């Protein structure tokens, strides 16, 4: 099978640095990294440096589902690249790139203050079939929505 690529984008009302840091702080990460209804976070362990590893233990129906990987690129506040492996990738390494681009022509006004906006683009490569694409599209879309609500 040919590897497939998934791309998910979300505008978030915060500056790129704040959003970027939320991806590398395990306490913050555990609060917003929710991939869908009924899924929780049991624990998050991170070593946020190139070559450092992470493990995210998600829970569903009383079971723990480990998601793990290794940081490849940490370019604050512009880009994160990491491997991603879980039961949903059939325990094969895949590649995730997350970019954070400040939207300069649009600001959101709340309470007479202007908030910067960032376009977060997540690209997930090396998925091997339509089922993996569908599962990860749902998960990453939910995760970016959860991040947006948590950070706002």
TrEMBL record:
InterPro entries: ASHA1/2-like_C, START-like_dom_sf. Residues 14-149 form the Activator of Hsp90 ATPase homologue 1/2-like C-terminal domain. It holds the Pfam family AHSA1. It comes from the Bacteria. Belongs to the AHA1 family. This is SRPBCC domain-containing protein.
């Amino acid at each position: 099978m040919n590897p497939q690529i998934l791309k998910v984008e979300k505008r978030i009302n915060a500056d790129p640095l704040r959003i970027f840091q939320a991806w590398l702080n395990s306490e913050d990460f555990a609060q917003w990294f929710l991939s869908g209804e009924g899924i929780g976070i049991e624990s998050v362990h991170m070593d946020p440096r190139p070559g450092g590893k992470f493990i995210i233990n998600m829970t569903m129906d009383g079971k723990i589902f480990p998601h793990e990987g290794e940081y490849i690129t940490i370019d604050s506040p512009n880009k994160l690249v990491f491997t991603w492996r879980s039961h949903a990738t059939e325990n094969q390494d895949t590649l995730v790139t997350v970019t954070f681009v400040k939207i300069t022509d649009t600001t959101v006004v709340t309470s007479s203050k202007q908030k910067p906006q960032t376009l977060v683009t997540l690209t997930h490569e090396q998925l091997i079939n339509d089922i993996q694409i569908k599962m990860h599209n749902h998960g990453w879309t939910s995760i970016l929505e959860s991040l947006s609500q948590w950070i706002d």
